[in-house]
Design goal:
242 residues, 2 domains, two-stranded antiparallel sheet
Length: 242
């Protein structure tokens, strides 16, 4: 266990060094592009269709900016200001944000927010980011399975499912995110929270779940991944309540 923690710490240190380099190389041109987009939006403010496209471009660049910041924050816990929040509300807000994405992906989300003591001290932005990442991973797992695509051909109304439950256990708040995907291999489960680990075939850094792990640890909690007996993956987050 101690050796695993040491290895993880070394990987986090490497991530932090890489993040600083990436931030320097990306942020400067990113700011220039964003400023240029603002100028174009002002100049062509009557062109509604153009403005809609520009909004999409700006949103994409903002996503890149946030990714860079998150990569930096991976090695800088405690940066975000914490405040009293209701985690059930954070989950509801996050589910609203991804509703359109889920509809297009043919995935439905079911919320069972049964936790009566759902208030805690934390960053709504960071915890929302964790939930967003878990939902996105679940969608990719569900829709990436050949069985899902074959089922869609047979039954056009077929949809994948994501279940998010909250409940209290002793003085802790439990959040469970379960999907109807194929699950996670035993080998991958051992490394799923490691920096740079990814099963995606596209070029990517694989820092999403590692960032989630760091955020939950910074909130004095922990996150574990496992496979459900009836199929699919389950991510369980445990956090202290107020």
């Amino acid at each position: 266990m101690l050796q695993n923690q040491l290895i993880r710490s070394e990987r986090l240190a490497a991530t932090g060094q890489l993040a600083a380099s990436i931030a320097h190389e990306i942020n400067s041109p990113l700011q220039g592009i964003t400023a240029l987009l603002n100028v174009i939006q002002t100049r062509y403010k009557k062109e509604k269709k153009l403005l809609e496209k520009l909004d999409l471009v700006k949103s994409a660049f903002e996503s890149i900016r946030d990714t860079v910041r998150n990569l930096i924050d991976l090695n800088r816990p405690g940066k975000e200001k914490k405040q009293p929040i209701d985690i059930n509300q954070v989950i509801e807000n996050t589910s609203m944000l991804v509703r359109s994405y889920l509809t297009k992906s043919r995935v439905k989300i079911n919320l069972n927010l049964a936790a009566k003591h759902s208030k805690l001290t934390g960053s709504p932005q960071q915890l929302g980011q964790v939930l967003m990442n878990l939902i996105n991973n679940a969608v990719e797992s569900i829709t990436g399975a050949p069985e899902f695509q074959e089922k869609l051909k047979e039954v056009p109304t077929h949809s994948g499912k994501i279940f998010i439950d909250t409940f209290n256990q002793d003085k802790e708040l439990i959040i469970k995110v379960k999907d109807s995907g194929p699950g996670i291999s035993k080998k991958d489960l051992e490394h799923i929270f490691d920096p740079f680990f990814t099963k995606k075939k596209t070029m990517g850094m694989g820092v999403g779940l590692s960032i989630c792990h760091g955020i939950i640890e910074d909130h004095k909690g922990y996150i574990v991944a496992e496979n459900a007996k009836d199929g699919g993956a389950i991510f369980t987050i445990t956090l202290p309540t107020n």
